[in-house]
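Input sequence (323 aa), recorded before submission:
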Amino acid sequence: MTRPRRIGVAAAAVFFAFALYEIVTSFVAYTADAYVQSDLIKLAPQVTGHILAVHVTDNQSVAEGDLLVTIDPTLFQLEVEQRKAEVDEARAHVAADQDLLASSRDSLTEVASAAAYARDNQRRLAVLAKEQDVARAELDQADDALRRADAALEGARQAIAQAQSDITMHQAAQARATAALAIAEWRLARTRLVAPTTGTINNLTVRVGDTAEANVPLIGIVDARAWRIVANYQESFIRSFEIGSEAWVWLDSEPWTLHRAKIAGIARGISRHPASAALLPYVAPATDWIRLQRRFPVTLTLVDPPEDLKLYMGADARVVILP
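Predicted structure, token format:
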């Protein structure tokens, strides 16, 4: 075969291979850059204290609500008792103020009646004194009795105002004490750390006697309700993908078995720099020394997976999507 013919055959072969690739990839989108994913719940206590008991073991399956860890509740229980006493004290103050208010109102009624009588008597004697039918001394006594009655009336009114002010103040103190009790009870309840979802304990390192710190992750749980497959596809593929499209997944943890799946989500953005990968995923554009096209994460969920199927977060997978 002559050299020009060999070159022509080679060029034809390359063209045929390229055409075949384009035809195949227009019907089948395959990637080996896929992995199993779930949600890792970083469970952190909301209070600080010594760990009294650990009720689970590493790699144990747990159900939502299962008790995981108990933090020593002694100090928290004592705080609850103290807050209860403060609530009782504030409630007693309010009750005493209300009794005083009722007594002050009764007194006001009495002194108001006495003041009304003294006023009527003073007016009557003042008329008689002008007509010189009574001695001046009797009018002076009536004037003095009226002044004392008015003073008593004003004192009763002030006592009522003071009682009402004390009630307002002690009711506010009772509200503060009640809120403090609620917080103390909330803190006490948080000494029992329970599973927020069904899943598997992962890499358990906590031990009895350790100190649990508030808002510092203590236990990791792989969520059993959030399994999915993340497949990174070249940007030339994703234009033909649609939500709900059918796919097939090969799990390296269960070889020689294909699982039906569907597309649940297609990423609309990636980070081009690892340092800035936070809210945007970063997919490395190179494997070893070979530079690849930019790839975008495609999320898939298994359709009716077998009940005995065990998935492992981070395990490798391979995905075929039929656009």
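Checked by second reader. The chain has three domains: 49-72+191-221, 74-189, 227-321.
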